[in-house]
Amino acid sequence: MAPAEFFSGLRKNLKSRLPRDLKAFQLGRGRGRLLKLHYGHPEIHYEAWHHTGAGRLEIGLHFEGAAEANQRAFDYFRERMVEVKARLPRAELEPWDRGWSRLYETLPAPQLDEAVLSYAVERLEAYITTLQPMLLVFLA
To answer: Any bridge partners for residue 75, and if so which?
Structure first.
């Protein structure tokens, strides 16, 4: 499956599965093998990223704003990892490049196909429905 077809299918299938109050996501900058979506804060976005060299698809919540804001988000979610892992058992929280951080998991994806698409939709839906209510409290 071509990347454009895969990520278009991911976006459309995700939107159809999300609860009504979470359907109104906005697309962030994403091209090629990357999809970013957010709820009014582009620096805090959900991401699906195909790492072709590793043959893996990353699904997660990325904090890519100012270093201090990213650290606050990291600390907030670190305190809630028991709650996060109850619904997202494979989720990992880590500091990342350029002062960013991410809460994510990867899944095998040597190629983009219908099976990877189906699993990606399910995982991204789980990330959004689990983390977005927590994120709203953090941003309040």
So the answer is: none
Amino acid, single-letter form, for residue 52: T
Where b means 16+ CB within 10 Å and e means fewer, 12-41 reads ebbeeebeeebeebeebebeebebbbbbee
**What is the token pair recorded at 24?**
């109104």
Q: The whole model's pTM is what? A: 0.95
Per-residue pLDDT of the chain (140 residues; tens, 9 = 90+): 999 999 999 999 999 999 999 999 999 876 788 999 999 999 999 999 999 999 999 999 999 999 999 999 999 999 999 999 999 999 999 998 888 999 999 999 999 999 999 999 999 999 999 999 999 999 99
Write the single-letter amino acid at 117.
L
Residue of 92, 93, 78, 60 whose CA lies nearest to 138:
78
Contact by Cβ (8 Å): 130, 76: no
Residues 6+ apart with CB under 8 A from 67: 99
